[in-house]
Amino acid sequence: MSVIAFNYEDVCKISNTLKENQQVKDFVSQLPEYRERIKPSYIKENEGQYIQRLMWYLYLSNQFCYSVQYQDPITSDLYKQKESDEQLNSLLECKSELSGLIYNIYTNDGNAFLMDKWLNPAVKILEFITEKK
Fold it and tell me: How many domains does the chain have?
């Protein structure tokens, strides 16, 4: 198994596609992890913002995983990535990209650098859009 490092623009495309789809946002609004996150009154995060944060954490996890797998140091450019407003062409394409991103947060030893409270919703969203294709 090899780890592929995703570039941030591609992760933004996944995020933009998901956060602009009303069915996905409705699904996210019912996730226990999302509902738990917005419980505190000081957290003012809507479904789209939650999806963006989730994709950012998946991106970081992927970068850390790549770094550990190949003993390649992470550069300071990690936080200076260019955002993209582009979307993918379809939920089917999004399913493929999200599946690849989730797969690529694991090293050969099976280590993932993402807490379950973020990984589980990503997997649930993937399962949801798989059913929708």
Answer: 1
